C-alpha cells in the first residue's frame, strides 16, 4: 500500500473541489484492508473513495481516505447462455463495459459512460437508460469493518433499491468492497424502454446491437451531460423523487405535462423537470451553476468553492419545495 499525508484531493473528485485529507492510503491488494484493521487505523474517521465521481467535499477531510487501486476482470464460470465475471473494486467501470463489448456479453451496455470504479457501483445501485446494475449483479465480496470479517452477499442480500443498497443504508461506512460478481448474458438481450435511447437508435437508423447501443447511449449522454474533464460535476446531483399517488395527482393538476414513471404503489417524478419548471435550469452564480442542458446536474465552471456549491443546491431544494411541495434529495455523497 501507499500512504500519503496531507494529500490533495483535486484529482480524486470530479467536482474539482480544492480540498485535501489528513491521510490518503492507496490499497494495492484487497487483503491490505486487514492490516489496517489490525493496526486499529480505522478507529479514526475514514471514507472509501473510488473515482470520486459521486461525492461533494464541502471542506478538507480531517481523516483517512482509503482508495482501492487493485484491478482485474476474471471469468469464473461459463455456461451456454451466461457467463459470470468477478471484477476487482478498483477496476474502472468503463473498462468493464469495453470488456463486455469485446467479448459480446450483454446486460451492462446501457450503463456505459458512467464515471467511477466497479466497487462503487453496487453501493449506489447505479442506473441509466432503463437499467440498474442490480439487474446483473450476482454477488458482492468484501470485508465488514472495523474487524475485517469477510462477507459474500448474494444479490438479494444487498437490499438494492432506487439508488440505494445495504451498503448505503445500515452498512454505510461499515464495509470495504473488494469484488463484484456479474452474471451476464451471452445471447443478445437489449433494454430499449428509455425513450431517448430508442429515439436515438431510430434517428441514426441503427439496429440494436452491443456496439450500436453503446454508441447511442454515449450520444444521448453527451447531449445532456458535461464532459467532466472540462467542467466539474458529479453527474446527476439530485434523485428523482418517489411520491405517493395523491401527491402525483395534486402536482399533475399544477403541471399538466408532468413526467412520471410507475414505482410500485408510488410514482417516480423527474427531478430535472421540476428544477426546470422552477426556473433554475442554466442558472449560474459565479462559477457554481445548474447545467443548461440537464437541470439535474450541478456544475463547477472552474473556481467554485464547496460553499458556493452548497448554497446553490440548497436554494434549488428550497425553491422546488416552495413551488411544488416536493422535497428533492441529493444523490451524491456530501462530506
What would you note in describing this structure?
There is one protein chain. With 335 residues, the protein is an alpha+beta fold. The chain has four domains: 2-68, Uridine Diphospho-n-acetylenolpyruvylglucosamine Reductase, domain 2 (2-Layer Sandwich); 73-185, Uridine Diphospho-n-acetylenolpyruvylglucosamine Reductase, domain 3 (2-Layer Sandwich), CATH 3.30.465.10; 195-223, no CATH class; 232-334, UDP-N-acetylenolpyruvoylglucosamine reductase, C-terminal domain (Uridine Diphospho-n-acetylenolpyruvylglucosamine Reductase, domain 1, Alpha-Beta Complex), CATH 3.90.78. It is built from eight helices and 20 strands. Strands 6-7-12-10-11 form a five-stranded antiparallel β-sheet, with no helix packed on it. A hairpin with a 6-residue loop joins strand 18 and strand 19 (297-300). Helix 4 (195-203) crosses helix 5. It is globular, with a radius of gyration of 20 Å. The mean pLDDT is 92.
Quick description:
The protein has 8 helices and 20 strands.
Oligomer: single chain
Q: How many β-strand runs? A: 20
Helix content: 10-25%
| Helix and strand run | EEHEEEEEHHEEEEEHHEEHEEHEEEHE
CATH architecture of the largest domain: 2-Layer Sandwich
Class of secondary structure makeup:
alpha+beta
Largest sheet: 5 strands, antiparallel
What separation lies between the terminal Cα atoms?
24 Å
Structural domain count: 4
CATH class of the largest domain: Alpha Beta
CATH topology of the largest domain: Uridine Diphospho-n-acetylenolpyruvylglucosamine Reductase, domain 3
Q: Estimate the mean pLDDT confidence.
A: 92
Question: What strand line-up does the widest sheet have?
Answer: 6-7-12-10-11
Q: Which of globular, elongated, flat, extended, rod-shaped describes the shape?
A: globular
Strand content: 25-35%
- Low-pLDDT residue intervals, each spanning 5 or more residues: none
Number of helical elements: 8
Radius of gyration: 20 Å
